[in-house]
Design brief:
- The chain is α+β, with helices and mostly antiparallel strands and 186 residues long.
- It folds into 2 domains: 146 residues, 2-Layer Sandwich (HIT family, subunit A); 33 residues, no CATH class.
- 25% of the residues lie in helices and 18% in strands.
- Strands 3-4-5-7-6 form a 5-stranded antiparallel β-sheet, covered by helices on one side.
- A hairpin with a 3-residue loop joins strand 3 and strand 4.
- The longest helix is centred in the middle third of the chain and has 22 residues.
- The protein is globular, with a radius of gyration of 18 Å.
């Protein structure tokens, strides 16, 4: 195990150990990909350290259950993260009241970002790619592709390409399989 640089958001330098300008470091095992959450203890979790005050952050909101702070490597100015203070690896592990609290905070941040930056929309999404601690990204969208998938870029960055639809039979099969799975969890 060693100190490895960990970015808050995905980019090609997400595991760059040479990023000396960044004071945030996290202990991880080389053989354990961050997306799995496996092998990383709560005491090693970057966001748990921020929530406990052991690491600095530009905090935007804090209460007894959640914290919102600026992303260290933002997509756009104002890009914020909202985390539960308790450790949950994946967003689907969050208790519904806690997920609702995170979403409510994200909505408040979004309304503030719209006023402050004059943007039409603000994106909110969970990824969990680089830090295995549930976290919502709240990003003011200055461009339609600030938080888009490569699937939407086949016609270039100035347009918005629509991916080919799935055949109706495949859509029906997919919907039925998901409905069945949801019912087994109810």
């Amino acid at each position: 195990m060693h100190a490895k640089h960990v970015h808050f958001t995905g980019n090609d330098k997400s595991n760059d150990t040479s990023a000396a300008h960044c004071p945030i470091r996290m202990v991880v095992q080389d053989s354990v990909p961050l997306i799995s959450g496996g092998g990383i203890t709560v005491s090693d979790c970057l966001f748990c350290k921020i929530a406990s005050g052991a690491l600095p952050a530009h905090i935007l909101h804090e209460d007894d259950e959640i914290m919102a702070f600026l992303d260290l490597h933002p997509i756009r100015k104002g890009h914020a993260l909202v985390i539960p203070k308790a450790h949950y690896t994946w967003f689907e592990d969050l208790p519904v009241p806690l997920a609702t609290r995170i979403t409510s905070c994200a909505q408040t941040l979004a309304r503030s970002m719209k006023r402050l930056y004059g943007v039409e929309r603000v994106a909110m999404f969970y990824t969990g790619i680089h830090v295995a601690h549930a976290h919502a990204h709240v990003v003011p969208m200055f461009h339609i592709h600030d938080v888009t998938s490569a699937f939407y870029l086949s016609d270039g960055t100035e347009g918005f390409s629509t991916p080919a639809p799935l055949p109706a039979s495949e859509m029906a099969e997919t919907a039925e399989a998901l409905r069945r799975e949801v019912l087994t969890q109810s």
